[in-house]
Amino acid sequence: MVPASRLPSHLQGAAFLASDVHFHEATRSRLRGRDVQRPFTGVRAVGLDLEAVLDRCRAYEPLLRQGDAFSHETAAGLYGLPLPSPSRSVHVLARIGSARPRSRGVTGHTTRTAVPIRVVHGLPVVPPAIVWCQLAASLRREDLGAVGDALVTGRRGGRNRASALATLDDLRGAVRTWGSGRGARNLAWALLRVRVGAESRPESLTRLLLVEHHLPEPIANDPTPVRAGLVLHPDLKWERWRIVLEYEGDGHRTSRSQWQRDIRRQRDFEAAGWAVIRVTSHDLFVDPADFVARVRDVIALRCRGS
Description:
The protein has about 300 residues and is of the alpha+beta class.
């Protein structure tokens, strides 16, 4: 068996149209090689990670028309927003007046009004506040609230506002423009509950769950002195009862170093007079009623002890 000829070096990490012979410099038979990917009809790629949203978008880029932009769940993935589950489909918004894109693995969208475009990782993407509105048709309202928190908080829990992707005013303006579009009720609900400070989706969902059960709203990642020279930022806290809530994800369970840090952190809070409630995915997604009851019990104990 004759080994396949080596592909030109400029194709590594690239996507291109199979018809663009001048670019790829390969024969039809060579493009059928096992080292050549076929992400979309008419497109070939080499060395892309098609499980990653960024590389899937790069794979689709040769099919983008002037004025098209990545949107909805795909844009959310490019911005690093916390979705409940990733979308395998690539969402593309056509420029105003154009037909929706149609291709295997693509979800096309149209618009009746002009939408501005940002460049993210070198790709055209719908702005974050508009993406938030687009997500309202597919996300439950609590997850929409969590995405809103992430947009206005940024990467460092609100302690570095420069990293925030949008402001509350941006979200309000986008919702006004969205009007009665799909998901308008979810947007109205979530907009009232978006807060700066949450560093993760579970933190946002925990706060929203507690408020929906008529408990006072806890503060997210508020600086909390626990001893001389040490200030911690609990996921959520109630100052009046000196209660903090700390979310324990899978990394907290499987990483020995993280587990040890969690123990030290809990000891520091408790030594400073704070009660610590540890929250898990089971509390949020399997038995939230039992979790809320447990929280109420801790509050009652703190009230009796004060």
